[in-house]
UniProtKB/TrEMBL annotation:
Keywords: Membrane, Transmembrane, Transmembrane helix. This is SLC12A transporter C-terminal domain-containing protein. GO terms for molecular function: potassium:chloride symporter activity. It is a multi-pass membrane protein. One of its GO terms (cellular component) is membrane. It holds the Pfam family SLC12. One of its GO terms (biological process) is potassium ion homeostasis. It comes from Parelaphostrongylus tenuis (Meningeal worm). InterPro entries: SLC12_C, SLC12A_fam.
Length: 306
């Protein structure tokens, strides 16, 4: 064993991550690990991340795109050189945009995460009782344009719809829907978004007779939670008509994603794009991951296509 083999390779890359967090002005702990696979590495980070009782309860993962998204990091996105940073921002940008970027540099593996492994990672997060968020299209979000649009506010839209139980007659505010509302509320109250965005909550109804009652219930709940948001009730009979008809006591049971037809998911996606066209961020419920990875990714593609 030579002298270089005795050095933990993470010690070489850790300063770059600390500098990146500083230059992006993020309040965050940096956790790194080395593992034989991405899935095992994610499991390690989920179990070990945090400080004392401050354990993360939410995991955010990017969408598994067919082609990798090229994330662009420019010096203009970072703060000016900080006195206490050991690495200047030009070196930070060069490191994270280099072809031999750290994950490939350490593992030597150029293969992407497979669809099956990605879905298994989603399941692992849920099995560890963590809240799971799948983020998509955020590379298209122009935060600079958002902060400069003083005269035009963008929207933060919440769609608390249970796609597996569309015929539910109640409000259906389960933990997942309340979590979406909480995330949107926190975002709308942050300093960067508070002056440039408005929060909207969409409730889907199956008939016009329910619209006034559901709108009243939604407004009462928002007032009770002290959340300043616009309530919008949307008829979606044209979407539910694509959902397979179920008779008997199984009407309100959950159906796996594999049974959700593409026409149903596509119609829901078109409705979101029509009503949330001017939204900067849209949050919606996703079905639970099924056993079939390909059907899971196909369903997510239908719902989140933009």
């Amino acid at each position: 064993m030579n002298e270089n083999d005795a050095v933990d390779p993470l010690q070489q890359v850790f300063p770059y991550w600390l500098s990146l967090v500083d230059y992006l002005k993020l309040k965050a702990f940096v956790e790194l690990t080395i593992s034989s696979s991405v899935r095992q590495g994610i499991q390690q980070l989920i179990r070990l991340s945090g400080l004392g009782a401050m354990k993360p309860n939410t995991v955010v993962l990017g969408f598994h795109e067919v082609s990798p998204v090229n994330t662009i990091l420019q010096e203009s996105q970072l703060l000016k050189d900080l006195r206490y940073s050991k690495i200047d921002r030009a070196a930070v940008v060069e490191y994270f945009t280099a072809k031999d970027y750290m994950p490939k540099e350490l593992s030597g593996n150029l293969e992407r995460l497979t669809s099956s492994d990605y879905v298994n990672v989603l399941k692992d997060v849920l099995h560890m009782t963590k809240s799971l968020c799948v983020a998509r299209h955020f590379h298209k979000l122009d935060k600079e344009a958002l902060s400069q649009s003083w005269n035009q506010k963008r929207f933060i839209d919440v769609w608390p719809v249970d796609l597996q139980r569309p015929v539910e007659t109640g409000l259906g505010w389960d933990n997942s829907s309340l979590f979406l509302l909480q995330l949107a509320c926190i975002l709308s109250m942050s300093s960067r978004w508070r002056s440039h965005s408005r929060l909207r909550v969409f409730i889907c109804v199956n008939s016009l007779q329910d619209m006034h009652r559901r709108d009243r219930q939604l407004k009462q709940m928002l007032d009770m939670l002290r959340i300043k948001a616009e309530s919008i009730v949307v008829p979606w009979d044209h979407v539910v008509c694509h959902f397979p008809q179920i008779s008997g006591p199984l009407v309100n049971t959950q159906r796996p994603t594999i049974d959700l037809p593409g026409s149903y998911l596509s119609a829901f996606n078109e409705m979101i794009k029509r009503y949330s066209e001017e939204a900067a961020i849209t949050l919606l419920n996703l079905p639970l991951p099924p056993d079939d990875a390909n059907n899971m990714l196909t369903g997510l593609e239908f719902v989140t296509y933009s």
